[in-house]
Amino acid sequence: MAVELSDVVSLICSHCSCALDPEVLYCRECRKLLVEDDGDTPIPEEDERILLLAQGCELLQTGEWELGAFRHWLQEFISEQARREIQIAEVYQSIPIGLEEEFQEEIDMGFAGVSAVNEALTLLAEYDPDTCPAEALKRSLALYYKGVCVVKEAMNINRRNRGRPLWI
After folding, report:
1. Would you state the pLDDT for residue 2?
2. pLDDT tens, 33-91?
3. Which fold has domain 47-162?
4. Helix or strand or coil: residue 128?
5. Which pLDDT score, from 0 to 100, does residue 43 have?
6. What is the DSSP string of 13-25?
7. Which residues have a Cβ under 8 Å from the Cβ of 14 and sit 6 or more positions away?
8. 146, 116 in Cβ contact below 8 A?
9. How far apart are CA 114 and CA 116, in angstroms?
């Protein structure tokens, strides 16, 4: 019987180099989210909500949660996300009238990030382990992660713009 390389080599965390099980979505040692980076999005400091979503996906993936329990939990997660989206909208509404153009980059970026987050959460809400491969969970989680990164970058642009005199 031939031994496959994958039978003897475990996955290694790229951040802390500890061994990982193939089913995990984040490293238990350093808490780094294990999603592929497309190189376009700067990786922010880990966000507790990203790790919380990864934990929920893992519980479904490993069978510790039934699909109904996951969907119920996810609805609460989505409700909290909606509250955060309202806070982002309030920031945009506070832009002084006549200066919208100066803030257009952050507005566009923020809405793109929110859109990616919402798309990811919709995909997760529709996920069915009987009809979708487990990779769909990772792809949805990666899309959520990218959306959060984009929103955080928009917030950084907002901070830089708000920190300069408006007449510059």
Report:
1. 38
2. 766 555 444 445 557 888 889 989 989 988 899 999 999 999 999 998 898 888 878 87
3. Four Helix Bundle (Hemerythrin (Met), subunit A) (1.20.120)
4. coil
5. 44
6. -TTT--EE-TT-S
7. 32
8. yes
9. 5
Q: What is the pLDDT of residue 70?
A: 95
Instruction: Pick from 27-31, 90-94, 102-106, 129-133 the range whose average pLDDT is largest.
Output: 129-133
- Asked if 103 contacts 158 with a C-beta cutoff of 8 angstroms, the reply is yes
According to DSSP, residue 64 is labeled S
Q: What is the rounded CA–CA span in Å between residue 148 and residue 137?
A: 17
Is the CB of residue 87 less than 8 Å from the CB of residue 103? no
Nearest by Cα to 158 from 69, 76, 90: 90
- pLDDT-derived band at 1 (thresholds 50, 70, 90) equals very low
Please give the torsion angle defined by the CA atoms of residues 6, 9, 11 and 15, in that order, rounded to the nearest 10 degrees: -150
Burial of 21 (0-12, 13-18, 19+ CB in 10 A): exposed
Q: What residue has token string 């990779």?
A: 135
Are 54 and 145 a contacting pair, CB within 8 Å? Answer: no
Domain ranges of the chain: 47-162
Residues 116 and 150: beta-carbon distance below 8 Å: yes
C-alpha 138, offset from chain centre: 10
